[in-house]
Design a protein that fits this description.
- The chain has 496 residues and is mainly alpha-helical.
- The chain is 60% helix and 4% strand.
- It contains 18 helices and 4 strands.
- It has helices at residues 29-56, 63-76, 96-107, 111-134, 142-156, 163-170, 174-193, 226-241, 245-267, 273-279, 281-306, 325-339, 348-360, 370-383, 420-433, 438-453, 459-469, 472-495; strands at residues 362-365, 386-389, 402-406, 409-413.
Amino acid sequence: MAAVPRSGTPEKSAAPSRPVRERPPAVPAVVRRRLLATVAATAGVVLLFVAYLQVSRTYAVNSDSANIMLMSWDMLHGNVLLHGWYLSDVSFYPTELPQYAMLEGLLGLHADTAHIAAAMTYTLAVIFAVLLARGPRGRAPGRAAWPRMALTGGLMIAPQLGVGAFVLLLSVGHIGTAVPLMLTWLVIDAAAARPCLPGGPTVLSPSGEAPPPRTPLANPPARAWFVPVIVGLLLTWVLVADPLVLVVGIVPLVAVCGMRVLRAVLSARPPDRGAALQASWYEVSLAAAAILAYGLADLVNRLLSASGGFILHPLGYQLAPLHTWPKHAWVTGEGLLALFGRVFGLSYVLGRALSVVSLVGIAVVATASPALNESIYREAQRRGVLCNVVDVPEYCDFYYPAVVRRGDLQIAISTSGQSPSLAQRLRQQLERQFGPAYAPWVAELGATRKLVLASDLDSQRKRELLHSLASREAFEAASAEQSTKRFSKNDRRVTA
């Protein structure tokens, strides 16, 4: 500190002070984790694309793919409106045709271009389906979404060779329509996940009370008027390509929004129903956007035809008779099982039972027939399904261990099926050794570990500190502290 004489002017220091070098701020651990997650996700997408490209190459290009490639080639060379082309009821004009034209411009017109396009489309379909299974951010904790995402990805990740590769990858069809349609649902999910902006007006009922709570879909940001506009444009885009979107996209969206509005209005008291309807503006806007998308898509198709473009031959829709619905549902289920390789070469009933079980990925077998147990196990092995034949260790890919649970602390004991009684006795001993006090202590260790890892300590010091916190002495000290707190709380209650 500089000395200040009576005149009030600071005296100059004899030795000039050296500038202090500030350490550059360390990259937060959260940023590093997000960067690593981004790199891992990108690598996963690339690997999926490469895998699906190899799967698509197992099936020969047919006339459907050749037709799409020739149409795209004609668009690429100036015939943008496809003048002189006669198409079926589905054109894929604004969706897959531009994709094929782009790839043909980069790679040329040959069979492998169709395989690359198919791999691109199915990779996007898998990614979008997994993201949809996650649901809107903030609706549920991240851990709760992982099982849904894993189940969806597990069902779609490996299409069956042969018919599965043809329908899901190489056949230019409705799987390409699913990509922009799922993108539309992701836009709605993203809007539902955003919090309301502060300062928005609150509409009160005539009785002075607030309107009933709004659903997550009807609770977007106060200025999210553009979301229905984007949804309407996306639906128009994909509906021009495929009229099936009317059945699988527009009608369901209008029905869901209508039911939400009806529920909100009917659940409110008669004086509050106007406010409830006003609070449901988001659902009303989405339904209106979907209905307008149908009219706008029809207008676009008429303009394309009037401008000398391609000619469509539309097919009419009609509802199948009610008595045929069970048969259609059965055929649909059979098709899904065949697409993902879930058709087994056993008897019809047993094969279908194993097909359904294999969708989960595991099978537990307990029959009185050793020959049947072995047959099921062999078939499960051939299909890559984990199997457990009860009380037959040699036919078990996994075992059910005896588990000691103390909150996040879990200790599993297994004898590989040799002696379940011994595993049970060991579990009882460990339950006495690791009492209930371990549950809060392990939770506290987890919270402390996050703080230590986010600190500026070097890695060696972090390791030493974490080992010290997890020692038996630390546990005994924490247990003693918890006992003291409980005793003090009980003492205050007795005094009171």
